[in-house]
Amino acid sequence: MTTRIEQLHQFLIRHKIHHIVFWVAMLVGLMLYQGMEEGFWFTFFNNVIIVSFFAILIYLNLNYLIPKYLIPNRPWMYSLSLIVSCFILITAKEIIQFFYFELTSRKHAQRVLLESINIQFLQAFIVLVISTITKITSDWLRHTRERKELENRTMQAELRFLKSQINPHFLFNTLNNLYALTLKKDDRAPEIVIKLSEMMRYMLYECNEKSVPLQKEVAYLRNYLDLEKLRHGQKVEISLEVNGIINNQQIAPLMFIPFLENSFKHGLNQQIEKCFVNIVLNVDENYLHFFIENGKPDYIPPPSQHRSGGIGLVNVRQRLNLLYPKSYELSIDDTPKSYAVNLMIQL
Fold it and tell me: In the sheet that 338-346 helps form, which strands lie side by side, from edge to edge?
């Protein structure tokens, strides 16, 4: 049903039928306003003359005067052209009406016509001004709508590109971990495969929307941490603390994963003595606070080998700017012994 309505609307717009409807309605309205005391056909043809000249005047303004003078920022030429066009066309209309009244023996109508010529010019000028304001307003609304649509398409394209970087990045790291365990014939490998399959299902089928339930995102984080715990065993401290109700909140998908990847890559994977990754997630009705901290090795590789955060942190900053403009705070506390991230998002 909606498709047919849209097709009808496009048909009417394409063939300018709505213009015809408007002028027919204008003609009927004028006839009803003036009444039929002079006879139906006399009133009909007289109003046809009036409506025809007003239509010519308005379309001349919309299709020629505005594009030629007003849009190129030539207001004085536009104003002069408007006055001249109004004078010429209304004069022509008055002449045609005068002779029409002569042919139909309406002497009193001729007198009324001559007495109201100044009003006729004023009415025509007011109609032209209204048409100009309507044109400017409609163009502004159309450009605003098109700009918003373009911004939205651009944002969605950038988000798809950013997520396409995040997913293979995480998958690459996880498969490397799984490969290392299979080489050792570790009994934990099948459990990792199950966890990985759950995470891949989430990434492939549930992360295609602009936002996802926070509850599912937290479950994804738990699976991620479970994989890391299986890989590192008891030699590391990994904790996740969740405070608040997460059932009714929404969050952009995979927003926290780059921080986790960064922590494990440059913390636990550096073979430091006190390995730890601590995560705290506090949620209330309006805000989400994500905190993650990891230990750092005493020796940091040169910049050519150690790019803090990789593409992950660059992506997450871009996504935050796109999805939560002026609604988030991101701070990083980089000390010799630890690396901490504080992210506050207004939900």
Answer: 237-243, 276-283, 287-295, 338-346, 328-334
CATH 3.30.565.10 domain span(s) along the chain? 154-346
Question: What pLDDT is attached to residue 310?
Answer: 47
Evaluate whether 202 touches 220 at the Cβ level (below 8 Å): yes
Following DSSP, what letter does each residue of 93-147 receive, concatenated? HHHHHHHHHHHTT-HHHHHHHHHTHHHHHHHHHHHHHHHHHHHHHHHHHHHHHHH
Q: Check: CB of residue 284 under 8 Å from CB of residue 329.
A: no
Spacing of C-alpha 119 from chain mean position: 47
Q: For strand 237-243 and strand 328-334, is the pairing parallel, antiparallel, or unpaired?
A: unpaired
For residues 71-93, give the mean pLDDT.
Answer: 83
The CATH number of 154-346 is 3.30.565.10
Interval 24-63: pLDDT, tens? 887 787 778 777 777 788 778 888 888 888 888 888 888 8
CB 53 within 8 A of CB 82: no
Q: Is 340 helix (H, G, I), strand (E, B) or coil?
A: strand
d(CA 32, CA 182): 89
User: Phi then psi for 145, rounded to 5 degrees?
Assistant: -65, -45
pLDDT at 236: 79
Burial of 330 per CB tally in 10 Å (0-12, 13-18, 19+) = middle
C-alpha 173/C-alpha 87 separation (Å) is 78
Q: Which two tokens stand for residue 274?
A: 């006190």
CA dist list (Å): 92 to 106, 126, 156: 19, 18, 56
Q: Which residues does 109 contact at the CB level (< 8 Å), separation at least 6?
A: 38, 101
Amino acid at site 119 = I
Question: Is residue 279 scored above 70 in pLDDT?
Answer: yes
